[in-house]
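PROTEIN DATA CARD
Card holder: Catalase
Chain length: 682
Origin: Scopulibacillus cellulosilyticus
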Amino acid sequence: MKEEHKVNENSKMAQLEQFRADDKRKKLTTNQGVKIAEDEFSLKAGERGPTLMEDFHFREKMTHFDHERIPERIVHARGFAAHGEFKLYESMKKYTKAKFLQDPSVKTPVFVRFSTVAGSKGSAETVRDARGFATKFYTEEGNYDLVGNNMPVFFIQDAMKFPDFVHAVKPEPHNEMPQAASAHDTFWDFVANNQESAHMVMWAMSDRAIPRSFRMMEGFGVHTFRFVNEEGKAYFVKFHWKPVLGVHSLVWDEAQKISGKNPDFHRQDLWESIESGDYPEYELGVQIIDEEDEFKFDFDILDPTKLWPEEDVPVKIIGKMTLNRNVDNVFAETEQVAFHPGHVVPGIDFTNDPLLQGRLFSYTDTQLIRLGGPNFHELPINRPVCPFHNNQRDGYGRQTINIGQTSYQNNSLAQNSPSPASVEEGGYEHYQEKVEGRKVRRRSKSFKDHFSQATMFWNSMSKPEKQHIIDAFSFELGKVNNQSVRQQVVDMFANVSLELATAFAEAIGANPPKEGGSKIMKSSPALSQDHTVKRPETLKVGVIIGNGFNTADVTDILKSLQAKGVYTEIISEQLGKIKGSDDGEFDVNHTFLTGESVLFDALYVVGGSGVSKKFRQYASCFIHEAYHHFKPIGATHEGEKWLKAEGIKNSPGVVIEKDIKGFKESFLDAISAHRHWDRQEI
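Structure generated from the sequence above:
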């Protein structure tokens, strides 16, 4: 059998070599056989102009990509959603005529879907990935969709490259592995050969790619849009969602373990927080640039691989979104919701960002195949709250029963109804931007800087965050089999930081970079999670406790935590009730088999006088894992002795105090900090 296997392998290798030789002679063509001279850039009216619909190569490439999967989404397949409302803090009339941004007394219904990008519908939720953050506003002027991510930039500059990027990050086609992961050859080969991805890769290798929860991650519109006011004056704008609870993340080892212990971790967290009345809240912020200031920055404001540093263009907080109702049916709502960056209302318009321009085509095309035809807008979750009237008819999934004999314009039989609305009546009018230029497949020279903001991101990180990025590169590239690809990535990121590239080159067995480095000294403190809001509310504390505990002290401590919005859940050897030393008792929420330290934000170790040796062994595993993940650990009574026996004492975030009042205050402070990175120095 071994000899037969060897012969088969040799035959396969010979076939592969022949395929490679044939591939070298092939030229890129359309599906109609037309040879293509350019596959990097969509056709534009001038280098910074809009994408043209006559670009048949782009349309064919994107249409094929949009229709590659049925029925789940090609990207963002793994998602969860909730209903809520948006309320404005102050009128934005100066900048936009969008009605839902005019009156602070009006509440606008919203529907928000969070998602991972790369994985299929059944994949885990705590993988390293960008997260979708898509919001549908049901306004009185129609639906407005703000379709963004939890990172403010993207891997590519032109939508022409989107199918290539997704093909590279998805499971490799020859063996359909790995699932929901970028740690493989084709993704990093894409990165090394498409260096515009450098900035986004820095975000993807940072803690932002493994959020603690949907409730604790930022959202970004990514693209540059326009606000247009009643006078027709336009402003460039970027959108931000700022979580009220701050921006917090998992650590990598913890994220991997949660994927196995609870692949529904993020959706469960969102569902339970809403069910318990701890409604997730996000403040809407905008960055605004006057049109006359378009070219005053050291980057192109239309480049989707660039952000606008908050220190240069402050974020103006203008309102708050509250998610206060879970879906009734995941399929009917979460799965059938159709977002589209082209769903805008008067007062919000587009720019010539070439990635945005491509999305304006692609999203409608995708919904046609995924939701079965052109009437996806009639599904209940997609229907606007305002009336809609037009002469469109029939098609798959039609629900409206139209009456009358006319379905065209212009007509006299129905007095030309429905008739177009004037601008004064709220009719949408595209901003009249002057466009001129030759039809070209090029990218503006102002898009050619791929490394300066990647360096700025690195400069902005705290010491622990930098180490996490090094570790992420080391892990991801450690999974890459092709030595040439590993070396190419090292050489590429030497342009971002020699410190970074040298560190992960050593870890993956590559040659350290001989040249490179960056002279960029700029940093943006707003990019570091070290400066985020730190609050204890909604954090979850696992209480390790057994029979014989001190009822009065423990009850007092748990009540004080709960009064500050902290959740406490009892972990013991078996379900049922545990009894205290004075006949008090608690219901057990988890056993050591159904609960894990990675599912909690902190541990409170109580112990008990009547616990078994097996109990102590389980508790020891919990304690050491939580300590390794830099989580707060508090201990009283027998638990204090346990921590000392485990050698865990006098460490940052470890609270051991005999005075119960002092313990409550210190432990709450430790929980509020979320993580205690100073342990890395010990």
